[in-house]
Amino acid sequence: MKRKKTLIRSQMTKPAAPCHLSSMKKFVSFFILLLFYFQLIYSQTTIPFRFRIITWNVGNSEPNCETFRQLAFSSNVDSIKGDLIVFGFQESAKKVFGSYSLHKTIIQCLQNHQYTMILSDYVGSNVIKPIWLYLFVTNVILQSERLHLLTINGETTLKVYQDKILENIFGYKGIIASQIQIDNVTNLVFVNMHLPAGEGKLTERCQLLSKFFQTYQTNSNNQSYMFILGDQNWRTMDSMSIADILQAIQENDYQNILNNDELTRMRQNDHSNGLTQCLRTFYEAPITFPPTYKYVVNTDIYLTMKDRKDRRPSYTDRILVSNMSTDLQILRYSSMNDIKMSDHRPVFADFLLQRQTNGNKSMQQTVNILEVALVEINNS
Description:
One of its GO terms (biological process) is phosphatidylinositol dephosphorylation. Residues 47-359 form the Inositol polyphosphate-related phosphatase domain. This protein has helices at residues 2-13, 19-42, 65-73, 101-111, 139-144, 202-215, 242-250, 254-258, 262-266, 361-379; strands at residues 45-57, 84-90, 115-123, 131-138, 147-150, 158-161, 174-182, 186-194, 224-231, 305-306, 309-310, 317-321, 328-335, 347-357. The chain is of the alpha+beta class. The strands form three sheets. Strands 3-4-2-1-14-13 form a six-stranded mixed beta sheet. Helix 3 (65-73) links the parallel strand 1 (45-57) and strand 2. Helix 2 (19-42) packs antiparallel against helix 10 (361-379) and helix 3 (65-73) packs across helix 4 (101-111). The longest helix has 24 residues, at 19-42. It is globular, with a radius of gyration of 28 Å.
């Protein structure tokens, strides 16, 4: 009993550390951790991510490797190749028997340029004019693990058809989408489509888009971008004559044509035009190239009459993005007039995504630990 009392007495009589010394140690620890934290933060660098999106109605042609090289690399800003290349094809021929030459050719061609295919899939008929979506990344990006393929509604691709009956056999209008993530932060969704054709079919085109958006579900964050690409079939309205359109093209007066373009008109804030509304919140870079449809194959001549019906030169092939920010830049938006094997001209857009990132998982873990430590010191 005496021994126990002695222990208690010795503990009670032990001199306590001065309060100001304890506070000083806490302050010094907090200051050191804070300096280390800011050193890590400010040591981060901006790692750009470049990518190109191409949309092209192939018109049942069979492009060779040189054509794919043009699509992927021509007109590059500063001659810098993209980290990612997205191909959206419509009306691409698919053979019933034998190998599919477009599919084999594009894979082999891009492999020769040190690109790896991470996704290829199609929507619509598996025989007649399928709508293909391809994603290629450089081998360097693939090894860096900066990019991850995500799912949409639990699948690597989301497919929406125009029709409900025999759509897998005869249908060749539809939408296919895929999603990737860059640096574990930014989600990019690519949506390739072939919308209903014909002048005045604006409502039908918007209905198919609406069907896609109703089907599409994702846990998108504030750093998400959706890219709408494809032969969307928006037409020049009959408020502008074919003769006036051709004259505007000759004079490079593309804005005059766009003033009578279905997509441009319906995305305006003016509801008095009575047009169906869709894609109003999406952004499109300024168009500085001539209409991409409808050409006489292998010529620069527009086909303005078919089956005794007028065919107004139109901007059917488009690329839009859901939103813009300081992180995303559109470097170029144009068509490729040298590729003439289809009645459509290919359209491409080059993008630059810039975010502050260290690309180092262990460093990020250290930052997370420091943040917890700072909170604990502050609360102690």
